[in-house]
Design goal:
Distance between the termini: 58 Å
Number of helices: 18
Order of helices and strands: EEEHEEEHHHHHHHHHHHHHHHHH
Largest sheet: 3 strands, antiparallel
Bound molecules: carboxymethyl coenzyme *A
Strand content: 5-15%
Strand order of the largest sheet: 1-2-3
Shape: globular
Length: 427
C-alpha cells in the first residue's frame, strides 16, 4: 500500500488508501468516499476507474504489453494452444501433461448440445446476423442446465464454465450452418477443440472433412489472441450481469450482446469492410483524410484502443499469421496490401502519432478469417467463441471474491427537479 491520497471538498479534508498491485498503476480506494463526503466521482466510460481486483490479465497500454497470469501473449501465441490458455485462465496455471489431458477430456465431453436446442435455430430468419442467433441461443442454455445454476457452489460453477467453453464452437458452427442452409454437423471428439470447430463449420455430412493442420494452428492462435483482455466492455458487462447473481449462461449472452458493437468485437467485420471499400492503395489518403475530419464520423476501423497507446501486441501476431495463412493456402489478397500500406501511412501521419492510434487486434484478423473461408458476419462470432474463456474466468473470479457486491454505478443527475403531475388536458 502506498501513501494515502489526500482529497479536499467543501473545505473538508479526507484521506483515502492507495492500493498497489503486482504491476500497473496504483489505485485510490475511494469506497468510503460517498459515505464520508456525500460526493460521487464522475467517470463516464470508466477511463480512470478500476472496477475490481483481478489476477487474470495485465495490460500495459503504453508499452504494448499483454500478459495472461504473467505470461506474455507473444509467447503463448507462439508456443501454447487455446486449450492450454483456457486452463491457464480458468485454473490459474499452465497445465502439466496429466492436467492437460484431464482438462481437454472434460471439455471434449461437453461439446454436444441438447438436441432440443436445435429447435431454437429454426425460429430465426435465415438471414439473421449470427451474433443475434448467438445472443439468443447462448441465453437459452440457461433453460437447459438446471444442475449448474447454484452459482455459490464452486463445483456447479465449474461445470457451467466447462459447458460454455465446450459448447461455444458447436453453437457458433450451427449459427453458420443455419445461415447457409446446410445441415448441422455433430462434434467429432477425436479432433482438437479448434479442428472440431473447423469441421463443424466447413464439413458436410456427405463428405469426409480433413482438417488442414496449418489452418487449425492459425485458427487456434486467433483464439488465443482473443481469449481474455482484462476489464473491456463485454467482460465488464458479464461481471455486472453476474454481480446480481444472474444465471451464468445469461451473463455470457449479455457479454455477447455487448461484444457485437462496432466499437468492440464488431470492429473486425467493420475493418475488413472498410479495407474492401478502400479497395486500392491509391484511395488510402482519401480515407485517412476522412478519419481526421472532425465533421466526418468515419474512423479508421481496427485502429485505436482505449488501453493501448502503442502497437497492440496481438496485431503484430495477427499480421504474421496472415502471411502464414496466405502461404499455406497459396492465395494473395489485394486487401492485405491495402492494409499494410494504410498502416504505414497512418503510423507516419501526425494525427495518428499525436493521438497514439495504432492498429489493434481487429485490423488484420478479418483478412485471415476471410482467407480461411468465413463470411464477415461470422468474425465477431469467432471473437465471442474465444472470449468465452475469459468471460467465464472473470465471472468465476468475481463470484469467488468475498468482497464482491452487486455492481451499481451512480450518476450526475441533470434532469428536472421535483414538479407536480399535470392532467393531460391541461398540458
Ligand atoms: N480513427 C480516427 N480517429 C480516432 C480513431 C480512429 N480509429 N480512434 C480514436 N480516434 C480519435 C478520436 O476522434 C479522438 O479524437 P479527439 O481527441 O480529437 O476527440 C481520440 O482519437 C480519442 O478517441 P476516443 O474515442 O476518445 O478513444 P476511446 O478510448 O474512447 O475509444 C476506440 C477507443 C477503440 C473505441 C476507438 O479508438 C475506435 O473507435 N476505434 C475504431 C474501432 C475499433 O477498431 N475498435 C476495436 C477495439 S480493439 C478490439 C476490442 O477490444 O473489441
Amino acid at each position: 500500500m502506498g501513501d494515502n491520497a489526500k482529497f479536499s471538498i467543501n473545505g473538508d479534508n479526507f484521506e483515502y488508501p492507495v492500493l498497489t498491485g503486482t504491476v500497473g498503476p496504483d489505485v485510490v480506494d475511494i469506497r468510503k468516499l460517498y459515505a464520508q463526503t456525500g460526493a460521487f466521482t464522475y467517470d463516464p466510460g470508466f477511463t480512470s476507474t478500476a472496477s475490481c481486483e483481478s489476477e487474470l490479465t495485465f495490460i500495459d497500454g503504453g508499452e504494448g504489453v499483454l500478459l495472461h497470469r504473467g505470461y506474455p501473449i507473444e509467447q503463448l501465441a507462439e508456443n501454447s494452444s487455446f486449450m492450454e490458455v483456457a486452463h491457464l485462465l480458468l485454473r490459474g496455471e499452465l497445465p502439466t501433461e496429466d492436467e492437460f489431458a484431464e482438462f481437454t477430456n472434460t471439455i471434449t465431453l461437453h461439446t454436444m448440445v441438447h438436441e432440443q436446442l436445435r429447435g431454437f435455430y429454426q425460429g430465426f430468419r435465415r438471414d439473421a446476423h449470427p451474433m443475434a442467433i448467438m445472443c439468443g441461443v447462448v441465453g437459452a442454455l440457461s433453460a437447459f442446465y438446471h444442475d449448474s445454476t447454484d452459482i455459490n457452489d464452486p463445483a456447479q460453477r465449474r461445470i457451467a464454465s466447462h459447458r460454455l467453453v465446450a459448447k461455444m464452437p458447436t453453437i457458433a458452427a450451427m449459427a453458420y450452418k443455419y445461415s447457409i442452409g446446410q445441415p448441422f454437423v455433430y462434434p467429432d471428439n477425436k479432433l482438437s477443440y479448434t479442428g472440431n470447430f473447423l469441421r463443424m463449420t466447413f464439413g458436410v455430412p456427405a463428405e469426409e472433412y480433413v482438417v488442414n493442420p496449418a489452418i487449425e494452428k492459425a485458427m487456434d492462435r486467433i483464439f488465443i489472441l482473443h481469449a481474455d483482455h482484462e476489464q473491456n466492455a463485454s467482460t465488464s458487462t458479464v461481471r455486472l450481469a453476474g454481480s446480481s447473481g444472474a444465471n451464468p449462461f445469461a451473463c455470457i449472452a449479455a457479454g455477447i450482446a455487448c461484444l457485437w458493437g462496432p466499437a468492440h468485437g464488431g470492429a473486425n467485420e467493420a475493418a475488413l469492410n472498410m479495407l474492401k471499400e478502400i479497395g486500392h492503395p491509391d484511395r488510402i489518403p482519401e480515407y485517412i483524410a476522412r478519419a481526421k475530419d472532425k465533421d466526418d464520423p468515419f474512423r479508421l476501423m481496427g485502429f485505436g484502443h482505449r488501453v493501448y497507446k502503442n502497437y497492440d501486441p496481438r496485431a503484430s501476431v495477427m499480421q504474421e499469421t496472415v502471411r502464414e495463412v496466405f502461404e499455406t493456402l497459396k492465395v494473395k489478397d489485394p486487401v492485405f496490401e491495402v492494409a499494410l500500406q494504410l498502416e504505414e501511412m497512418a503510423l507516419n501521419d501526425p494525427y495518428f502519432i499525436e493521438k497514439k492510434l495504432f492498429p489493434n487486434v481487429d485490423f488484420y484478423s478479418g483478412i485471415i478469417l476471410s482467407a480461411i473461408g468465413f463470411p464477415t458476419s461470422m468474425f465477431t462470432v469467432l471473437f465471442a467463441l474465444a472470449r468465452t474463456v475469459g468471460w467465464v474466468a472473470q465471472w468465476n473470479e468475481m463470484i469467488s471474491d468475498p468482497g464482491q457486491r452487486i455492481g451499481r454505478p451512480r450518476q450526475l443527475y441533470t434532469g428536472p427537479t421535483k414538479r407536480d403531475y399535470v392532467q393531460i388536458d391541461k398540458r
